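Trying the structure run again after the queue cleared.
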Amino acid sequence: MAWIQINTVVQEAIAEPLSDAFMEANAASVTFEDAKDQPIYEPEIGTTPIWGNTKVIGLFDADVDSKAIIEMLVQMVPELKTTQFKVEQLEDKDWIRAWMDQFKPMLFGKNLWIVPSWTEAPQPDAVNLYLDPGMAFGTGTHPTTSLCLTWLDHNAPKDLSVIDYGCGSGILALAAQKLGAKTVSGTDIDPQAITASIENAKRNNETIPFALVKDFNAEPADVIVANILAGPLKELSSEFDRLLKPGGTLTLSGLLATQADELIQHYQSIGITLDTFETKEEWGLLSGKKQV
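Done. Tokens:
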């Protein structure tokens, strides 16, 4: 099936209204792209990151009347002009197959593999976690997820209790369970994340209790892994202290490497010494023990 893209670059305030207009015009999908290489490292929780200059792209069947669609978009978003839109023909190919081909099995540490469900495990006798890219954050491709998975492989929580706080796709909870944890539980503020985590557990023939933060009633654990953002990691310190056993291990990621010192000092003040610091690209991971 042939497709076209209709796109334009707009200011931040126009991006969401234009996205809504594209959907009203029956776009198959709408995508936001950074138009000026302006990375957003730490958006507010619960928000969709939008750049100051955002390229908004609507995908349509190639048979549509693109001129009529653009005129409709301008009527719904009067700040725009018809002349600023571009129409691009896309190559006619199997887009689902092309998307799937982007994702290959990934090795973390020495023995932990993340394997898309449509591929064969490169090492059947290794620890293989089957996980498909989806709507919830966390498939191993982001540096912070990679740091956490590698840390779990190097520090397998065999016979220990583990909490995955901010579970996203459930990837860290599942990795901990497959690496021999005695018990694992996970929590998140996003209902989509809980749904995705439960489905991923089923796909891997694992049973893990995932619950929204408001319903999370886990006992203190030997290990807490939290891959969130620096702001929430600081705000949640008292909760992590409550949920971590004396002598337990806390591992934090989702922070920029430049934010590590502030978090180290903050956690030291409540009796948790984060003395392991690892980095990948501009991101960091901290890990350490709670005082006995």
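DSSP finds nine helices and 14 strands in the chain. Worth checking whether this holds up in the mutant runs.
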